[in-house]
């Protein structure tokens, strides 16, 4: 059933009240009113007008000259006006034809550009810039659950990934923390506390049974945001003289060193859960540091309506929520294998 739309003309007497009157055409009504000429005829005329020749238009469109002439005449009949003046084999645009052709060229160029961009969306890679630890321990193992995961191209940064989208060649950045950046949309993704982790073999060899044992063992330090002092304070223990082991550029390298049996690292719960579940690392004790937002999804504000950016954002937030590590979730949980502070 077609929906009718009532429109008041300016100056018409307002004698009655109509509570459901629509004063503008809605999309459905507008579509019913749209009267477009045959596209083949439009295309033939625009090519002939732009190239100034029926013959050249036929070559561009891979049609015969007579077919192009037929399409142009069909458009003239549809519009009920002459677009060309014909003199033998020569054709010249009328004033109406010249104005109409100029508008058609602009419209067809825009149509072509839009169609190409839509087509490229299905082909171009989606570029994500993040830290090595986030990529290896969290993002890569989950990419097969993203609809376009096979098109994701990951680049990593040893330091905090740049959010300068004019130079980082990224569609999305997994930003460290949640600092606001001008011209960038920042969506807090994960909140996490930290706790000590070590390999099973290191725990056995060092005899780590209570939190005080960490004062005599090798600790992996993180020069970006070392939090051992905070952890010992939370555990109610006077910290040892630091450093009691090597210092690494970031927490991922410190965690990897612990995984290799070189000492104890202070790892982020949200990042190492899968590593704990695999048994490569074991959580030590219940004491944790104060949780905070460790990662955010960042992208240029100009791309906030980009369908791929929105889909990626919704997907990655959903993954964090499902795991209980989302920025708005309870920050830390008890995991099997943890040892109580004593």
From TrEMBL:
SUPFAM superfamilies: Periplasmic binding protein-like II, Winged helix' DNA-binding domain. Residues 323-342 are annotated as: Disordered. Residues 37-94 form the HTH lysR-type domain. Keywords: DNA-binding, Transcription, Transcription regulation. It holds the Pfam family HTH_1. Belongs to the LysR transcriptional regulatory family. This is LysR substrate-binding domain-containing protein. It comes from Albidovulum marisflavi.
């Amino acid at each position: 059933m077609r929906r009718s739309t009532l429109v008041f003309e300016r100056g018409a007497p307002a004698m009655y009240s109509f509570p459901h009157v629509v004063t503008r055409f809605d999309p459905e009504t507008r579509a019913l009113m749209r009267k477009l000429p045959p596209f083949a005829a439009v295309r033939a005329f625009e090519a002939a007008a732009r190239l100034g020749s029926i013959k050249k238009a036929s070559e561009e469109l891979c049609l015969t000259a007579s077919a192009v002439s037929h399409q142009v005449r069909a458009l003239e009949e549809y519009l009920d006006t002459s677009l060309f003046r014909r003199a033998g084999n020569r054709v010249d645009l009328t004033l109406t034809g010249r104005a109409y052709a100029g508008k058609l060229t602009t419209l067809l160029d825009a149509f072509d550009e839009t169609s190409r961009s839509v087509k490229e969306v299905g082909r171009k890679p989606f570029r994500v810039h993040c830290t090595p630890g986030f990529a290896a321990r969290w993002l890569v193992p989950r990419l097969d659950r993203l609809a376009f995961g096979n098109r994701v191209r990951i680049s990593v940064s040893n330091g905090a990934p740049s959010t300068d989208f004019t130079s980082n060649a990224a569609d999305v950045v997994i930003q460290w923390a949640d600092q606001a950046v001008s011209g960038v949309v920042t969506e807090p993704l994960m909140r996490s506390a930290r706790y000590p982790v070590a390999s099973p073999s290191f725990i056995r060899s060092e005899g780590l049974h209570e939190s005080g044992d960490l004062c005599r063992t090798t600790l992996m330090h993180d020069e970006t945001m070392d939090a051992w002092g905070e952890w010992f304070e939370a555990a109610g223990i006077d910290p040892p003289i630091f450093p009691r082991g090597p210092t690494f550029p970031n927490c991922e390298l410190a965690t990897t060193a612990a995984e290799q049996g070189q000492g104890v690292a202070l790892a982020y719960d949200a990042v190492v859960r899968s590593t704990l579940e695999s048994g490569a690392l074991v959580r030590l004790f219940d004491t944790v540091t104060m949780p905070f937002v460790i990662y955010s999804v960042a992208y240029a504000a100009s791309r906030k309506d980009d369908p791929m950016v929105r889909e990626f954002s919704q997907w990655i937030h959903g993954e964090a929520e499902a795991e209980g590590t989302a920025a708005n979730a309870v920050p830390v949980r008890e995991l099997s294998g943890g040892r109580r502070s004593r």
